[in-house]
Design goal:
The structure is a homodimer of 251-residue chains. Chain A is α/β, with parallel strands linked by helices and 251 residues long. Chain A is 31% helix and 28% strand. Chain A has one domain (6-16, 43-246): Rossmann fold. Chain A is built from nine helices and 13 strands. Chain A is globular. The first copy, chain A, starts with 9 loop residues before the first helix and ends in a 5-residue tail after the last strand. The model of chain A has no long low-confidence stretch (mean pLDDT 91). The A-B interface holds A 148, 156, 160, 168-177, 196-198, 201-202, 205-206, 210-216, 218, 233-237, 248-250 and B 148, 156, 160, 168-177, 196-198, 201-202, 205-206, 210-216, 218, 233-237, 247-250. Strand 7 of chain A pairs antiparallel with strand 7 (167-172) of chain B, so a sheet runs across the interface.
Chain lengths: 251, 251
């Protein structure tokens, strides 16, 4: 099973760093605030971050009171940034692909993953390992590219625009064809997996998780006034969030 | 709150009857088989059917061993058909809109609703009442128009076609704008509500339901060979199914 390490690609890495340095981007405006809004109370909690990248979120979790944070990532380059910029005695960074979670031991109260699971082929394997690593009542919170984004087939335009160039609708094809569906993002051939909504949810339910909340964030009216280009998120959201609990007893 | 009784419209009623009499339609090919595949064992179970229409499903549930079936529907015309064509001593038909479920008493093991909930504005009200009417461990199973269908805004084409008239993608707009979004189906102004995926799921989770399984049926390859026009369901499924359990104790 192919494990992708795109963040160790020189071109990708430098372009990605530039994107993240822009003050206004979809991550800052929608992804991070939604992730924070769904976080449980982290005081005294043991947190595992899957695909921690350069460790900004690990540091956030420490600031929110986590007693211990373990960040894993496949990319040595990203972890080098993490260790230099987001180091803390409560944080441990491990160079490990998510596909190798089976070798991780320990118990966690909260497992979080931000925009990484759509790069992983063996989603059921990750879900099973997260369940094993969580304590009773533990929370699994993740974001991924929205299924309406991962299904984009790349042949033809992703959007239909009016005569002024405004996006009037998203062109959705093959939503029901689950597949590896590579995308171009700075470099060609970003390995990405399209899964239907039902697969994202059923894999959790089938493996013992209780679905707590789902989110598909879109901009506020205020934000669209300020950045009209983000109206396209009303047509097709970029991100899907799922919060699930390992509840083997009554809730 | 407006309660829609479109099935008592003369034109709609006769056109609808003709559609259902066609041997091959989306209901026969996808909706009914998926509903049956998700049904729990009904032997000795008390079943409530919300929006039972002409009662075919109520009769199916009796055949599958249900001890008692209650079918409710807003349409007197549909219930007249039900009483004449699908009558059984185990079935009780009640002329009642789903919005009035609060006045229903009793306890049920399984509550089922086939393609009716998207007509109802007060979805949380129905969910709360279903929870109240279910026994511990009881199942709520429903189908509705898929959110990618209910979001269709009606201005412009629903599909983009190639030069041979084949549908190449669905035109998806305003998925994130939840609203009453009337459609034309035999008659104009069919009152229909668009809810995002997250709202369908979160309303259940927030009211105590555990999500058991979701389905978004699409045709098999074999079926597409026989009826090529149904390939469009790979682009955009017509139906969403949700199976949820009232689990207040461990599962």
């Amino acid at each position: 099973m192919a494990k992708q390490n795109i963040f160790d690609n020189e071109t990708f890495f430098s372009e990605y760093q530039k994107l993240r340095e822009r003050e206004v981007n979809a991550n800052n405006l929608f992804e991070i605030p939604t992730l924070f809004s769904l976080l449980p109370d982290l005081k005294g909690k043991r947190v595992l971050d899957l695909g921690c990248g350069s460790g900004e979120r690990c540091m956030d979790y420490v600031k929110r009171g986590a007693s211990k944070v373990t960040g894993i990532d496949i990319s040595e380059k990203m972890l080098a940034v993490a260790k230099s910029e987001n180091s803390d005695e409560k944080i441990t960074y491990l160079n490990m692909p998510m596909e190798d979670l089976g070798s991780l031991e320990g118990e966690y109260d909260v497992v979080i993953s931000s925009l990484a699971l759509h790069y992983v082929e063996d989603y059921p394997g990750v879900v099973k390992n997260v369940y094993r690593l969580l304590c009773e009542g533990g929370i699994f919170l993740f974001s991924q590219e929205h299924p309406l984004s991962t299904c984009y087939s790349g042949n033809g335009d992703r959007w239909t625009r009016d005569e002024n160039g405004m996006k009037i609708h998203a062109n959705i094809a093959d939503y029901c064809v689950e597949r590896r569906n590579d995308s171009t993002w700075f470099v060609e051939g970003i390995q990405r997996y399209h899964r239907m909504f039902k697969t994202v949810i059923n894999t959790l339910a089938d493996n013992g998780f209780r679905i707590v909340k789902i989110d598909e964030p879109y901009p506020t009216e205020e934000l669209v006034k300020k950045y009209p280009e983000y109206y396209d998120l009303y047509h097709k959201p970029d991100f899907l969030f799922v919060k699930a609990a390992k509840n083997t007893v009554a809730v």
